[in-house]
Structures are given as structure tokens and as C-alpha cells.
Amino acid sequence: MCVFTMRFEERFGGVAMNRPLVFLRDDDIGTDDGIFFELASFYSERHIPVVYGVIPDRLELRMISVLRKAKKIDPGLVDIVQHGFRHINYAAPKLAKYEFGARRTYAQQLQDIKSGLGIMRNIFSEDFTPAFIPPYHGYNQDTLKIIQELGFSIFSAGQLAALSGKAFLDLPARVSLNEFQPDGSSRVLNVQEMMATFRRVFVTGGVIGIVFHHHLIKTSADMRAMKDFFRSLVRWRDEEKIRFGLFSDFIRAQAKKSAVA
Ligand SMILES: [Zn+2]
Question: How close is the Cα of 136 to the center of ligand 1, in Å?
Fold first, then answer.
């Protein structure tokens, strides 16, 4: 094993890194809709694992049973994680959005993140994977301290978090399949743009996180682009250029490593 690979395995808690590991993250889960079901069966038929970022305060009853069922049927293909609490924007107008950031005190952030965690644990118990995704990828140092204090194993924003001595594993989603404009509008990239963004990160190796929002799919062209992109990833997996993984794979690998140590 080369030194480079060893360093990666060390950093990612013992998960083998002989080829880049790709995780898919679908955020803003809470409401039941047809697009979710269409994509969920698409993933399941192709054995594509997906991390679902659930908004605790927006979780509807039917979605709870759908997620529970999906996890029971194939636990290796589904992770259920926490995406904020209410997904409200507290930032000043025209500034980068956040639910957790400068205008929220430590106590306010702690209360919200803890309430969300309580909901997730109550509803999903052992089916919940202790990972936190900050809405809009916004957060500050207080948020990171709270994530550590509450014992989350994984934090996932858009880039690595600037914090020394992290007790959690930091797994950013550096590839986004959606583009957001300052005026609040958004769009789904076309498949060429998706592949170009993915390739730019692929050459850096390691863990490649891909984030998307299925509820932003508005047209049949959007859906086609998403599916074509996922089909390309499946081809890459079959050609052994990448492999897919979930957050829970990292947690399991870490637990195994600590048990051996
Ligand atoms: Zn979100």
C-alpha cells in the first residue's frame, strides 16, 4: 500500500481508498412527493446508495414510513441524517443564507440542533446515522462546537470546516448538481455541466460528495439530466473507477478500527 493511500485511510477512519469513494446526498427531505419515489426506485434498481438529509421540523408522517421502509429493505443503500432543524434563513437580507450562523447565539443554535436531534432519534432510533448537514451550508464556529458537544460522528457542508482537532469526520459535498443565484433562484445543471463539475473534483481523489435537491427538478429535461448523470456514475462504478459509499460506512469502519486498537 502506498503512503498516500495509507494517509487517506487514516484520515477517513479506515475506509479503504484504493479508488475514489463517491457519496450522493439528497437534501431537504421532509415532504412526500412523486419525484422522490421516482428517483428512489431508480437508485434501488441500480444499487446506488443515497444519504438523505432530513429536515426534522418538516418531516411528514408518510415520509417517515417511506424512509423507515427503505432503510429496512436495504440498509446498505440508505442513510438517514439530520439537515438542520427548521431550515429557516436567519441571515440579513442579501447575505449568504444560514439557519446557524452569526445572528444566532450559541444557546439558540444548541437548542435548535438538539431539538432536531431529539426528533431524529425518537423517530428513527437505530436507523438514524448521527451526521449533520447545515442548511445552505452555512455555519460558524459555535455550530461546529455544538456538533462536537452533541456527539455527531460526521459533519457535511460544501467545503472542509475550519476547525482544528475535529472530533467528527468532515465529509464535504464538493460537487453540487444545482446552481443557486444570489436572487434566490436555482436550477438543475445539464448533464455536461454535472460531468464537468464531477471530473474536476474526481481528479483530486479521496472522497467525492455530490449534493442535489430532488425537489428542484421541475422539468422532464431536469429529470433526464439527473438520471443520465447517475447512469454515468454507475458505469464508472462498474468499470471500477469509483465506488459508492454512505456516511454509515465510515462510522462502521471507524468503530471496527477502534475495536481492534
Ligand atoms: Zn437544504
Answer: 6
- The CA 54 to ligand 1 mean position distance, Å, reads 9
**CA 133–ligand 1 middle distance (angstroms):** 8
Task: Work out the angle at residue 44's Cα, subtended by the Cα atoms of residues 37 and 22, and round it to the nearest 5 degrees.
Answer: 110
pLDDT band at residue 3 using 50, 70 and 90 as cut-offs: very low
User: Is the separation of the CB atoms in 230 and 42 below 8 Å?
Assistant: yes
Residue 12 has what pLDDT? 58
Domain 28-251, CATH number (from 3.20.20.370, 3.40.50.2000, 3.40.50.300, 2.40.50.140): 3.20.20.370
**CA 258 – ligand 1 centroid, Å:** 33
H-type helices in 24-165, by residue range?
34-46, 61-73, 106-124, 141-149
Residues 6+ apart with CB under 8 A from 50: 24, 25, 26, 40, 43, 77, 78, 79
Interval between CA 155 and ligand 1 midpoint (Å): 14
pLDDT single digits (tens) 218-251: 999 999 999 999 999 999 999 999 999 999 999 9
pLDDT at 16: 57
Distance between Cα 256 and ligand 1 center (Å): 32
CA of 83 to the centre of ligand 1 (A): 7
Confidence band, pLDDT 50/70/90 cuts, at residue 216: very high
Q: How many residues does the chain have?
A: 261
Cα(213) to centroid(ligand 1), Å = 8
